[in-house]
Amino acid sequence: MTDKLLFPAKPPVLTEIANSETLFPVHRIFCVGRNYHAHAAEMGVSVDKAKNVPFYFTKHPSAIVPSGSTVEYPPQTSNYHYEMELVVAIGKTGFEIPESDAEDYIFGYACGLDMTRRDLQLKARETNRPWDLGKDFEESAIISPIVPKTECGVIDTGNIQLSVNGEIHQNSELTKLIWNVNEVIAHLSKFYHLQPGDLIYTGTPEGVGPVVSGDKIDGSIEKLGDISLKIK
Predict the structure, then answer these.
(1) Domain residue spans in the chain?
(2) pLDDT at position 3, please?
């Protein structure tokens, strides 16, 4: 079949698994929006869990960049933001997953950075247009090696932190997620047949802000590990 392709197909997107030579093939990237109350507030909105449900945006798997990389400052923005997040890696197929069973579908966890062209995102929001230009762009999904759940256990508590050039900007707790990991998996699986290789970026706490060329970002999640990124 490959001899019938107009041009060579892109190779699969692979990310590292901690303490293993095996690689994790990335299928899709789902991101949860406004999943910490304090971050929603700094973005000028409020979230009432009793009245609202989670909402999502996506990034193309080609946006994946490994921790420790140096990336270009992206085009068409003057307000390039970091967002530190817990990433959940799905390990088996599931649809309409009960919340009580959600942990069974988790392969592991990673630290993630949801890099954002904030000015483009806000412009889209103001005009009721999709966030794609602000969120889904090259080198915008940074990820650390995935730690299998068999090694780290269930990650549902712990400190999540980010610093820029050594100065702490984000410092919160995973227990402050509005919709926790199990709730997100159960809800998302009502709309998609979740597949092995799916990644879920679960949302960022307050303290997001801009970075410029020359900056270095360092983040960590308790019991999970670190992530870093340099801006060229």
Answers:
(1) 2-231
(2) 85
- Residue type present at position 147: V
Q: At residue 230, what are phi and psi to the nearest 5 degrees?
A: -115, 145
Strands 199-201 and 29-32, by their bridges, are parallel
Read out DSSP for 17-35?
Answer: BTT-S-EEE---EEEE-S-
Q: What angle do CA 199, 200, 204 make, to 5 degrees?
A: 135
Residues contacting residue 211 through CB under 8 Å, at least 6 positions apart: 80, 81, 82, 164, 217, 231
**Backbone phi, psi, residue 134, to 5°:** -85, -25
Tell which CATH architecture fits domain 2-231.
Alpha-Beta Complex (3.90)
Residue-wise pLDDT for 137-193, tens only, equals 999 999 999 999 999 999 999 999 999 999 999 999 999 999 999 999 999 999 999
